[in-house]
Structure formats: C-alpha cells, structure tokens
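[recover] target loaded
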C-alpha cells in the first residue's frame, strides 16, 4: 500500500489514526499470532512454488517472530492500518517476493475477524474468572452466615425472615446462570475465521483446521461467508455482559441500603469521609461500582446498535468501529466486578443490628397464620385475617408482634393457643428453621446448597485454568520460529 496517494486529512484524523492507535494498543500481538499461523499453513501447501521456497518462508516466519521484540511501526499517512504497516516492515527486510507468501489466500476480512475473536475470547475469559472470584466471595460470606437471620423485603417493605446465607445464595444462583451463559458463549466464540479470505475462501487448499488448532480455536468457522459477515458472537458478548451488570447493579442497590442502615460495614479503605461532616462514612466503593455497571450497559448498547439494520456482509460497523465499545464494556464491567468483590471480601455484617431488627419484627405473621391453620379448625383465609388484625391492634398499642399473648388473639375472636406455642410461632429463627424444604432458608437446607455451589465452582475454576494453559501454549508456540521450537 505504500506509494498510494495520501488519505484525506478528515478521514485520516477521524478513522485511520484512531484505529491505528487502538490496534497498536490492543491487537498487535494477535495480528502477529494470526499472521504467523497463516504463514505456517501456507508453508504446508503442496504448491510447487511453496515447496521450492521453504527457506524463504522460514525466513518470513523468523521475521514475524522478530517483530514481537521490536517497537511497533509508527503511523504512516500512506499506510491504512497496522497490518499493512507490518507488511511494509517485512517487505523492507525481506523483499516483496518473500512477503507474498503471507498474502497468499489472506484477506484483511478474515484476518481482522480472527484477531477480534482472539482478543474477545481473552476478555471473556478474564470476565469469567472475575465472576468466579466474586462468587467465591459471596459463598464465603454465605458460609459464615448460614444461621444469621435477617428480615428480607418485598416491595420495599419488610417481608419475611430469612438468613443472610439464603439471600447471598440467591444472588449467587443468578451469577451461576450468568457464568453458564458466559462459558457457553466462550465455546461458541472459539471458532476460527482465518482461511475464509474475503468471504468465499481461497483456491489455495489451506488447511483451516490446522490454522484453527495453531491459534487455539476449537474449530474453523464452518462457512466462509459466515466467518467474515456474522456479528452474533459480539452481540452475545454484549448481552451476556449486560446480564452480569444488571444482576450486580441490583445487588449493589441492596448493599448500599444495608450500609446506610449500618447492617453491613465496609472496610475503612473502601469508604470516604466528608470535607465538612466528620461523622460520614460514604460507601464510595459501591457508588463507583454502580456507575461502572451503568457505563457497561451503555457500551453494550453501542455494540448492539452497531449490528442493527446493516447488510449481512463484511462491514466496518461491527468490525473496527465496534472494537472501542467492546473494550470499554469490558473495562467497565471488570472494574465493577472487582469493586463488589473487594467489598464482600473486606466487609462484614453487623450481627447486633441485624438481631435488633429481628427482635422488633412483625414479619412472622405468616407463620402465625400457618400455625392457626395447622392446630385449629381455621381456614387460611380466616387465619390470615386474624394475624393481620393482631398486627394492627398491637401496633396501635405500641407493642410489637413478638409481645403478643394468647389473650390478644382471643380478644379478636380467634382460637386460644398456648403461650409457648404462640411465642414459637412468632419467633423469627423458628420461622426460618421450619422452612427446611428444598431451596428454603433453614440452616441445613441453605448450608447444603452453599456447599454444593462451592464444589461446582471449584470444577469450573479448574476448567478455566486449562483454557488459560491452552492459550499460553498457543502464544509460546507462535512466538518462535519452528526451528527454534525443535
């Protein structure tokens, strides 16, 4: 491309220069990996010219390996992108004839899509690992609080007693599903476009399965048109990141409420004082986590709309133009995940304040209604009415439900219960213990749930380590010429 007329200044400043900087910062190693894998695939072709120029192709591969240790080419107004800048440097050292073997059957279409996928799978794997770290922190807190009763809310009002572990395990359940989606997305993402050329493949019999293996992909994309035209893998990345951000934004909302009530105490390094109010402990770590999730949602929308209402073909819309939003989405979500994780790792529930709320609760009224239904000839509808009337009457008297006596119930026209039976029915800890069915908050039920979640998470963590090792082997294999490896 050198020697062509200079690009228009407006196009250069708004497109070529920013894209060049982005590729230099985020994509350069992946370009070199993909180019090296393509050269090795070309080197195996049965073509007579290829067979007779094996030494020259070996020199080309060595030059690609050397590029990894050199400063990146500086932006040249006559060169449109980093790939052609690498080409120009290779041609300067080897000559155009040798570098022509790199260009055999290779288009920027399949090369770019391969590079974008390679970068995205690294980002996806990073997010998966951080979700696992957050889940470990959640489950550690849950394991500590299997018997810690607290009053859960529905519709922003006190609802029923449960345990801290039951709540945290519920959040973990959602993150576990998010994690499943992320792992499934990784498997679908991990197919290789290289060898698709512009869209119809190449008349050179390139072994695309070999290329995919060199780059650590599970397989090549099975249709060459699909390889360069599809954007669904980016859409899936965006929507899965959205789901994680939405889940955690709701969790952060609760954490902020608890910190404002003194029920959850953040570590000193995670709060900020006021310039004028000495008493303040502002939960800034959670506020910034919340904004990170909001910004992640914004970046994901940029990605989704870039794939909207465009032809099904190789385009800039979902190619180079979307990469900044993709990286931004990753950065914001990663930051939010880290901030929430450290908040859980270095924070603690105030057990005394939780217990005080439990002592004053009227949220055990459901269990009173259930007890009346079990022990007396009372329908649930009538028991529900009696329990509601009892709560109202005691409130008018300035008493809480825990202070109710059997005579209070009889006064309302209800049946007589033994005081001990009534007291137990109104006890929040008993309320929790009696809900021992599958998925319930009773300590034995939620304890088993948490233990199983920890075990499953350990299995996932082991599989992630294997994926990391695979990508590391790929990088090491591609970073040195074949003779050195031998």
């Amino acid at each position: 491309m050198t020697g062509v007329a200079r690009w228009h200044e407006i196009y250069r400043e708004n497109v070529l220069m920013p894209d060049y900087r982005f590729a230099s910062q985020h994509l350069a190693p992946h370009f070199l990996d993909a180019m090296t894998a393509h050269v090795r695939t070309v080197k195996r072709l049965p073509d007579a010219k290829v067979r007779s120029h094996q030494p020259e192709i070996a020199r080309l591969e060595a030059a690609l390996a050397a590029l990894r240790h050199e400063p990146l080419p500086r932006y040249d107004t006559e060169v449109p992108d980093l790939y052609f800048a690498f080409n120009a440097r290779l041609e300067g050292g080897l000559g155009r004839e040798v570098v022509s073997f790199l260009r055999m059957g290779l288009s920027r279409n399949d090369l770019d899509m391969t590079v974008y996928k390679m970068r995205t799978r690294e980002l996806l794997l990073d997010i998966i690992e951080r979700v696992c770290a957050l889940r470990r922190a959640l489950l550690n807190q849950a394991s500590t609080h299997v018997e810690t009763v607290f009053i859960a809310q529905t519709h922003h009002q006190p609802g029923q007693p449960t345990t801290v572990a039951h709540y945290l395990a519920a959040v973990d359940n959602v993150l576990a599903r998010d994690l499943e989606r992320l792992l499934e997305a990784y498997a679908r993402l991990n197919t290789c476009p290289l060898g698709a050329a512009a869209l119809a493949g190449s008349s050179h019999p390139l072994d695309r399965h070999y290329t995919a293996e060199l780059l650590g992909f599970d397989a090549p994309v099975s249709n060459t048109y699909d390889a360069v035209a599809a954007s669904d893998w980016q859409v899936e990345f965006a929507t899965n990141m959205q789901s994680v951000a939405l889940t955690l934004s709701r969790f952060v909302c609760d954490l902020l409420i608890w910190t404002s009530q003194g029920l959850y105490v953040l570590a000193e390094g995670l709060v900020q004082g006021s310039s004028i109010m000495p008493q303040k402990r502002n939960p800034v770590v959670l506020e910034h986590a919340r904004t990170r999730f909001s910004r992640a949602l914004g970046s994901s929308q940029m990605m989704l709309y870039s794939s909207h209402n465009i032809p099904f073909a190789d385009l800039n819309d979902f190619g180079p133009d979307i990469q900044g939003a993709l990286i931004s989405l990753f950065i914001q979500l990663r930051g939010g995940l880290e901030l929430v994780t450290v908040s859980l790792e270095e924070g603690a529930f105030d057990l005394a304040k939780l217990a005080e709320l439990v002592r004053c609760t009227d949220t055990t009224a459901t269990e009173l209604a259930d007890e009346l239904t079990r022990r007396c000839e009372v329908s649930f509808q009538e028991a529900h009415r009696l329990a509601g009337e009892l709560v109202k009457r005691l409130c008018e008297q300035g008493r809480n439900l825990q202070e109710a006596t059997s005579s209070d119930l009889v006064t309302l026209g209800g049946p007589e219960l033994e005081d001990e039976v009534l007291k137990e029915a109104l006890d929040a800890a008993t309320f929790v213990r009696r809900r021992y069915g599958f998925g319930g908050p009773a300590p034995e039920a939620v304890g088993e749930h948490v233990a199983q979640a920890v075990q499953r998470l350990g299995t996932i963590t082991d599989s992630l380590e294997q994926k990391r090792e695979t990508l590391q082997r790929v990088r090491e294999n591609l970073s040195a010429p074949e003779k050195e490896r031998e």
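[recover] notes: Strands lie at 149-154, 157-163, 191-192, 219-220, 264-266, 347-349.
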